[in-house]
Queue: 4 jobs
Job 1
Amino acid sequence: MSLPLTDLKRRNAKPHHHNPVPNTKRDDEEGGFDGSSFTGAVFNLSTTIVGAGIMALPAAVKQLGLIPGLVMIVICAMITESSIMILLRFTHASKSSTYSGVVLDAYGGVGRFFLLLCIIFNNMGMLVVYMVIIGDVFSGTWSEGVQYSGVLDEWFGQRYWSTRPILLFLITIFVFIPLASFRRVDSLRYTSALSVALAIVFVVITTGLTIVKFFNGSIGMPHLMPKLTNDESFWKLFTTIPILVTAYICHHNVHPIENELKDTSHMNAIVRTSLILCTSVYIATSIFGILLFGDNIQDDVLANFDGDLGVPYSTFLNDVVRVSYGLHLILVFPIVFFSLRLNLDGLLFPHAIPLAFDNKRFCFVTIILMAFVFVGANYVPSIWCAFQFIGATTAISVGYIFPAAIALKDNRGVATKKDKLLSLLVIVLAVSCSTIAICSNLYTFSNKTTLHVA
């Protein structure tokens, strides 16, 4: 049996580095793997980026104002590109093959421990949110005493198999677990390509609806700048930061994707191509979402596709958008789960053989994580506030603070003055914006609680 490409890289790593990178399956079907392609890597990284955040971006941009909002999307993309490039340079300099290995090289075991915790909490929170939204789309939900029907209830009526727990259980057993059984991230390239295509379907439909309503004369002028009526509205602007940050977090999957490349010199181009693709989707979604719904746009724009759109075939288009988005999240789930499993295994079993070579450990970690996500999606009363705090803390840490801290430490001497200056600026902005966002969320939450009690 020949060693997979990722294991060859492990030989060059320092002995104390734990690199929980994916390996190939040892069956005949995948035995001839000689590296992933450029296109497959772009689809996998793009799918990691475009998750549930796409639906929250239009409301965030509306709150910031169209011009500042679009500028912030581009700035976040540029900062993300810089942080990943810094991470890759230090990866090669330290001869590591994982994100945690780079942090271990710079800040030792303590730094690695906190990074793994951040990735685990971030990915776990994202997966719970994905499963909740999937349940909302297909099975419906209750909000403030009002029931919103799911797509399946509207099509087939209420059935036992369309209830949230049963439906999510069936999706977990017949979709999530089979897709999570792959030992190599490149095996998800086709589902990732379909996931990106489904996200583009939403953009195309939103664009088409906007054009139709524009010629009907029912499109209003959007707010180009933020509406600041009082101090609260100003501080509320900072609550958009976690949404913008979460929309670009993909750092935890950069190394698994690079480790499987046929030619690792293409990784920089893969990162830039993925970011350009996702930024284009984000900008189009934000512009046409705001033009289409104006001030009536919901925090989750998917909620706007639950009524009359004022165009022919409105019900059909609503269903297409909701189903395509639900399927999109179903296909995003395994790529995020892949990274979650690797990093949890790296935290629990730092000195064990690669996870893909231990079937019992692979199955154990997979089943435990699936069970936690399933329980969280079905029985946790409210995860939205927790997700906002995760976005303002762990997501910012994984995407920006850790790469910037690695560049500032520069124990390998590869960071330029520009890198260090940018890293210092990123840390200051990340910590300050995160703190303000958390305080603003707490203030808003306390006000809602007070009003509810009153």
Job 2
Amino acid sequence: MDLPGKPISHIFELEEIEDMISNGTYESLFEVHRDAGIPQKNPYGDLKKVIDSVPVFGFNSGRYDINICKNELFTAIGAKNITSVIKNPSYMCISTRNYKFLDMTNYVPAGTSYDKYLKTYIGGCKCEDSSRCICGLRKGVFPYEYITSFDVLNETKLPPKSAFYSDLRESDIKDEDYGFVKFAWEHHEMKTLKDLLVWCNNLDVEPFVSAIQAQRELFKKFDLDMFVDGVSLPGLSEKVMYQSCFKGLKKPKKVPGAPVEFPLDRFNGYEAQDTKAGRDFNMSITHLNQLLRKQLYTCYHCFCKLDVKNASADRINNSIGHIDGNIMMSCIACNVARKDMSPAAFRYQKMIEHNSDKLVYSIDKEEKEIYHKMKANIAGGPSIIFNRFAKRNETTIRGGKLCKKIIGYFVDFVTRRRSFELS
């Protein structure tokens, strides 16, 4: 192997690597690759892509604000190569080379108001008199419809309460709200309506940014960046779930089987199989018996006990024949199921199957007991979900009764009904 920037210390022939895999020194070529110190892909390109993209946040902006101003906005900033994620009728994300427009309502439970979002992450106003709030957590008030030109922003007096009337809502502001504006005008020594506008905008933005930072820190505990790893709360939650359920997986317990000799008729069958397929055959029954002893008479993949009925010679590389060094001992079921999957990947798949129950209750381990009770006794369609794998005359429901027939139904995203039947 030629490692960039390093002198060649040893040249491994392919046969040497295959021998190291077959004798158990390495699980796969990937482990050889890793131990050799071959440098991984340079992450600079992906990192630069993230750094160059500035996130722009809004609250409920995907449904309203962005829809209204997106064309003019993208023209003004000269945006090209615009991509978007749409959840009708709202934009979840609009991305350009330099900006990523995100709606924070996608990162909170449905129905969460802006006020509730702020209270969740930074708390609410704690001032004794909300009309004299100085903590910056009370929403400001501004006479938007009073502004008919930029010149109006230069006015040096606070407009009367009637100037705050909203044609959109067809209502005046409350006396308490107007009193709050009067207090802010004097407390912050405002000189013009422009000062009031800046104050009002800051009350919208600063608490919002603080809440976003607090929420982002929460997801950092799971090694997730909210705005890189997902565009919604369900997407991030799914990643947290997979982080939790795939930690601490346990291998099936390896219990040695009884000593057994590999059946000669099955050995002869492999020779006939290779001859028919035009593959080389160079395997000895002595080698198979040695492998059986080395593996403690258990399957290489699922660790079940091997006997004369289920023992098989599983080829590591299925493109070549049964040759000493290209064989591992497995049960017939695993040999057939693995097909061309790598041994390491298939063994991991068997470990996932062994931990299938844990993958369901891993988020809340306190529910483990009730989960198993429900799985053992639930009937009908939900039983298929709880059992995940169902087989006629093998899977049990209703407290141990065997299923005689299994039919499952589901509706896909275009509402077409599909069904499957196991027999």
Job 3
Amino acid sequence: MIHKVVRFWGSQESVSQKLGDFLCALRTPTRIMPFSTVRSMSFVIYPDRQEQPWETTFSDPLPVATYLPIQIFDSIRAMCNLRSMRLQVDWFGERQESFFYGLLQNVEIPAEYIRISASDRVMRRVLEKSPQLQALHLPETTDITQFEPVIGRLRRLCAAVGRVQSGGPIQFPAINEVNLKKIAERYQSLEELVLSICPSSHEYETLDREAVASAFEKDFAKAIRIFKRMPGLKRLAICIELEAAHSFGFTYAEEDRFYTDRLLRLSTCLPRLVQISITNGVDQYWTVTRASPGEMTIGRGIWGYKEAGFPHSVNEGF
């Protein structure tokens, strides 16, 4: 069984050769590292800036970058015990992406947890080929409310939401009623939900402090009602966009009291939740953990998004 992380360094051609030799070694029956023992895999696939011909069994020469996906997805077929997969596919040209997309045609991915960053087209195909998927982590550039296919059986979701077109100048996407309704309707089996914010160029600098606070309260009250419609939800983390958070104009003490009060309010209204977190962009986080009925622990710190992702929970952490 493979117990250590295996890394390959060097030029792209060198890495391609080393990876090919490694994967071929795994296929050899006399080796002690058969594919069936692999439970977690992580790959970053990126194209060469200048496409170079590569001899293959195909009729057309292929860019060097596409040689690695051939090996990777050919190997996945034999990873019957694969549980966790991280896949980052950097930007491909149209020709490269079409080839990569085609490689997934006959692959079934047994992973229960997938963290993926790729084009929407490639991500859809990977998810369609993952019948056992239970936990999904999508990049912040992908708005989960606009993303298909719907995977209703998900237990854990870490994704981003964007601003609503008809929502007005003051918005908090992670507690926006339109966004949350779509998530609640599509993903009815969720036990854990982590919502970040899609990148936005919107500015809050000219907004009135009281207007921002009032808009937050309205959205927050509606969000509580929607969370109540998600009976399986046990852990929740929501992100407040950094620019929006700064527009409150709080002192440190006011900010701490504001977010702590909202967490306690959420915990009171949703007693089934065992952990709730609010992150202030990537700056700070506040969290409430329920150890037992009537017993709660309040935590706070900086660089909050990772801490809000529940890394201790089932299978691979977000």
Job 4
Amino acid sequence: MAVMGSRWWGLSLRIIGGATLIVSLGMASMVAIAEARLRKQVSSVHGSSPQVEAGLLMRVLNFLWQKGLYGYTHVWPDMKFGWRIVVGTIIGFFGAALGSVGGVGGGGIFVPMLTLIIGFDAKSSTAISKCMITGAAASTVYYNLKRRHPTLDLPVIDYDLALLFQPMLVLGISIGVAFNVIFADWMITVLLIILFIGTSTKAFLKGVETWKKETLLKQEAARRLESNGNLDDDDNEEVEYKPLPGGPSGEGEAENKGPKKEEVSIMENVYWKELGLLFAVWCAILALEIAKNYTTTCSMAYWALNLLQIPVAVGVSSYEAVSLYKGRRKIASKGETGTNWRAHQLVLYCACGVLAGMVGGLLGLGGGFILGPLFLDLGIPPQVSSATATFAMTFSASMSVVEYYLLKRFPVPYALYFVAVATVAAFVGQFVVRKLINLLGRASLIIFILSFTIFVSAISLGGVGIENMIEKIEHHEYMGFENICSYEA
């Protein structure tokens, strides 16, 4: 556990360091663009002078913030049947199917589809994407409520893991939605490309590692069957599939207790105490968000209601973290290795939960883009990782939908239609991939789907963002921060 923790810690530091470097380069490039543009404008009027260089910093700040200027106006196309709706439905269907299986939601595919095909502006696409993620996540959770852990006698959803991350995820969503209003599109694009390339690479490497482990286990099972020579084909299939790479070390004991049911009743499979606590956090923060909507933006009451979300979320996650640290609770899906935790690990994981929520609210994506790879690094089996990330994402995504609705960020008819598409697609995706895993005996399929979805999202969203950035630069449009206190839907 200590070796794995130190390895993950080191890898996390390298990723954060690399991300910081790339952000710095991105910011520097945008400042250079701003400098060239402003220098050209000033020189055309006044000619070159030493004062131009002296005032460079002020002009850069002026580029990023100009009082009374706004770069955002929403674009909502009319809802009518045509090729755009048909193509958008097909892309949205496959995006929801892949996203639900990988536990990432599919927002990286939804946002470009809504922007390029349907014709929404970037921020409205973000809001509708959250609606689609909520529909897909809710149907996936319903599908998983009856399912059991692939090797242990536990639910496939790890409720203790969700209790550690979900409150921080919901808190991060509120921060991310506010940043979505404030940040310019090019800033969101830079952050998105950095995040997605890093997480997709990490997930792919984890998939390759898991694939190799599965291959070794299959070879071992084949040798065992060949030496015994008395097992039929049905037994062969069973032995090949049961060992799950990346799972807990103590899974052998669970397997030897006899046949394990893949599904049980919802009443038996759900941990109601943990679910009730998660729902209470969701309701408390939702109530604060609704109350905030009836206050004047940026007033004392507005900021007080915002700050009240912190003790609610931090309190519940801290309770779970302290219980894990002292051994009163454990991440059961990790087996015996789920009982030893260090304080710095728990703090880092809670911070990752906030970051995942911020990414979700800011970019219109599911927090699973961060939680999925993180759970895999913790040694959680792919099926449990996907199910638990989606479960936590349901709370955070639905919170985003309410907040975007209060901000009047999306047209309801379009949202309802695409929610229906995503809901059906999630059911189909879960069913098909579950059959493929049973047929091939490779749970790493989920990890590769996760990596592929994130990588495609990086290319599509990054491409759209860069194109919009270049267009705004050419037209000399305002590209600075928006004023949240003056925001009007």
